[in-house]
Design goal:
Oligomer: heterodimer
Structural class of chain B: mainly beta
CATH architecture of the largest domain in chain A: Sandwich
Largest sheet of chain A: 6 strands, antiparallel
Strand order of the largest sheet of chain B: 12-13-14-23-22
Number of helices of chain B: 2
Strand content of chain B: over 45%
Number of strands of chain A: 8
Number of domains of chain A: 2
Order of helices and strands of chain A: EEEEEEHEE
Largest interface: A-B, 97 and 111 residues
CATH topology of the largest domain in chain A: Jelly Rolls
CATH class of the largest domain in chain A: Mainly Beta
Distance between the termini of chain B: 69 Å
Shape of chain A: elongated
Chain lengths: ~200, ~450
């Protein structure tokens, strides 16, 4: 568990001093009004949740940090199983997938996996082929690219992959703290047998 | 063998988890399984980091709620409650090193035993924070007083409607209107509910409220029988028609009344005894077979949630019987709320969990929203090891609007989280390991 890092950048900088700050003595227009006990300016805020950590045995307040998409936990997103072609699904046919086209938004350095799983009739089992993706996929060499990274734009990655079997299913997996990632689209390209294998 | 080229495209908007069909029959915009991703604006994005913490209070007890409120001086307070008492976030908490004692200051400790360690019901009303959590008291802090007990009456002083003072007999006097006290001590009425006119620049009519309830930094205000000193707390607390309502009450005489609703007069949230002000009162929902497990205000209507039914509460505009209780259904089994802290409301929308589905309720009626993820959610609910807690969260920060219902389900290894995007009607799941969410999520001020 990470307590707010005392030496790191302060996620909640002190609010600016401005006119209209809370009174420190009775208000002139309300001579009898008492001053407040403590209090805040009401300038900065965050989404907070009371939590209890079962490892440390301590109560804390969890901060949801919407400026950082580098999730600290492992993540997984599974796409549906497919029976190509979608327009007229044909059961019991092997397909060969040879390319995955991935479009993603560049949010920062990241590492994750694109997985393709198929069913193997001969062994009655599922086989998964994994392709590790690094963002950026090409090392930052030019000065302009170094300055613009991450550019928050949509990039395209062509992933050569060779998978044979029934009902291909793509998935995205990542480890905790492996960088912020955002997928806008994924396309599996392949060929399906034209005749049944029954 | 000849082959046919194909492309399988997945693109947003993505619709979240779908477990109501086999994974080879669901459409491409659904997912049979996801964890720790967020689906928003047509993108599959790793969810926001949940790795920063504010230190908990020095007593290290479970935190029963966190909220911010603005006091009568327009000063904000971010408060938490533990079994010790009420704490508030210090303005200088950011100064390093950040520690518990520098972060939180104790407004006051409970003078008597509080309720159990459940999420507390809270309500901000007329610039004051009210809370109760199944004990025999309703507590109030105004953000201004730090000594707790109502102040002694003072001459030539401005008081707001509902303000409490201690008169020269040691009794509580409640201001019936805002005004300025006189230059000489009035002749206080010594009878319960007796009124005293305080002839200041702007006269105030005070009402005698009996002996004060216990207080220490903050105060108990749920005196429901001032003659006999009976106090009440509750499990649920809402505001409707400028009146505060306690539901499923726990009283110092008689114990728990799971079907009881108590209310205050309009604008006077510290008067609960009908003998003090006829605008206060109570009603026992004895004509239904179940007990109250929640309440929410949706627009100008309140809904009392029972295990197997829902009661609609509307204002009559009358002082003595201010509310009309309409049981939408009173059957032995029916749509109701089965998790006392799993419901949430936000403006004109409420969401609760029944035994057959998750529902939203608005002025337009009820709708099922469990949708394609219902069975997966209920499987997780079955594995809960503590109270599931629901919150409706309109935004993480003002630069990241994500209006969703967040259902957190404590489990053995951590907390399973189901987010329902209200805008896109999709369910998305997360998991936070080694951490139990014990209260509602709230956007609070930190500076």
């Amino acid at each position: 568990m990470q307590i707010v890092n005392p030496n790191g950048p302060n996620p909640f900088p002190p609010p600016p001093i401005k006119p209209g700050a809370p009174p420190t003595k009775p208000l002139g227009s309300s001579p009898g009004l008492l001053t407040s006990t403590g209090g805040l300016y009401g300038v900065n805020g965050a989404l907070l949740t009371p939590v209890f950590n079962s490892i440390t045995g301590k109560s804390n307040i969890l901060i949801m940090d919407a400026n950082n998409f580098d999730c600290e936990e492992d993540g997984e997103y599974d796409f549906p199983q497919e029976i190509p072609p979608r327009e007229q699904p044909q059961e019991g046919r092997d397909v060969t997938c040879h390319l995955v086209i991935l479009k993603y938004r560049e949010l920062g350095y990241a590492r994750f996996a694109v997985n393709l799983t198929t069913y193997k009739r001969l062994t009655d089992s599922f086989v998964t082929v994994q392709y590790l993706v690094n963002i950026p996929p090409i090392p930052l060499k030019t000065r302009m690219r170094k300055q613009s990274f991450p550019d928050k734009e949509i990039h395209t990655l062509y992933i050569p992959i060779q998978v044979v079997g029934e009902r291909p299913q793509a998935s995205i997996t990542r480890s905790g703290k492996s960088g912020p990632m955002s997928i806008t689209s994924l396309t599996i390209c392949g060929n399906a047998d034209q005749t049944p294998q029954m | 063998m000849s082959k046919t080229y194909f492309e399988l495209k997945y693109r947003g908007p993505y619709k979240g988890v779908h477990v109501e069909l086999p994974e080879d029959l669901i459409t491409p915009d659904y997912t049979p399984f996801m964890n720790n991703f967020i689906l928003k604006n047509g993108e599959i994005r790793s969810r926001p980091r949940q790795g920063l913490y504010l230190p908990g209070p020095p007593d290290n007890n479970p935190i029963l709620f966190i909220t911010s409120f603005m006091d009568a001086n327009n000063v904000y307070h971010t408060c938490i409650v533990t079994a010790t008492g009420l704490w508030q976030l210090n303005r200088t908490w950011q100064r390093t090193p950040i520690t518990s004692t520098k972060t939180w200051s104790l407004v006051g400790a409970y003078p008597i035993q509080p309720g159990p360690n459940n999420p507390a019901a809270i309500q901000v009303f007329v610039n004051k924070l009210f809370w109760t959590n199944g004990g025999t008291n309703l507590w109030q802090w105004d953000g201004i007083t730090s000594v707790g007990a109502p102040n002694i009456w003072q001459k030539n002083t401005a008081y707001k409607q509902g303000a409490q003072v201690i008169d020269s007999h040691g009794n509580v006097q409640v201001a019936g209107n805002s005004g300025i006290s006189g230059s000489t001590t009035p002749t206080w009425s010594t009878s319960l509910a007796g009124t005293t006119v305080d002839n200041g620049t702007t006269p105030i009519t005070w009402t005698e409220g009996g002996k004060p309830a216990p207080s220490n930094g903050f105060q108990a205000v749920g005196m429901v029988d001032a003659t006999n000193g009976v106090t009440a707390g509750a499990f649920f607390l809402i505001e409707l028609n400028a009146q505060l309502l306690m539901l499923n009450t726990v009283e110092s005489s008689g114990g728990n009344f799971p079907q009881r609703v108590r209310w205050t007069p309009s604008g006077l949230p510290t008067i609960w005894d009908p003998n003090v002000n006829i605008g206060a009162g109570f009603n026992d929902e004895l004509d239904v077979p179940d007990s109250i497990l929640g309440a929410m205000t949706v627009g100008t209507t309140a809904f009392i949630l029972r295990q197997n039914g829902i009661t609609e509460v509307t204002s009559t505009g009358q002082g003595i019987n201010p509310f009309n209780f309409n049981h939408l259904w009173a059957s032995d089994r029916g749509i109701g709320n089965i998790y006392p802290f799993g419901y949430a409301s936000y403006g004109p929308l409420g969401i609760f969990i029944s035994s057959d589905d998750i529902y939203n309720v608005s002025l337009g009626g009820f709708n099922r929203i469990g949708g394609m993820a219902r069975d997966a959610i209920y499987t997780d609910l079955y594995q809960a090891v503590s109270n599931p807690v629901g919150s409706i969260i309109p935004y993480y920060q003002l630069n990241y609007v994500y209006n969703h219902y967040k259902l957190v389900i404590p489990q053995d290894a951590g907390t399973k989280i189901w987010n329902y995007s209200i805008e896109e009607s999709s369910w998305q799941s997360e998991f936070k390991s080694n951490t139990s969410f014990v209260g509602h999520s709230r956007y609070c001020f930190t500076g």
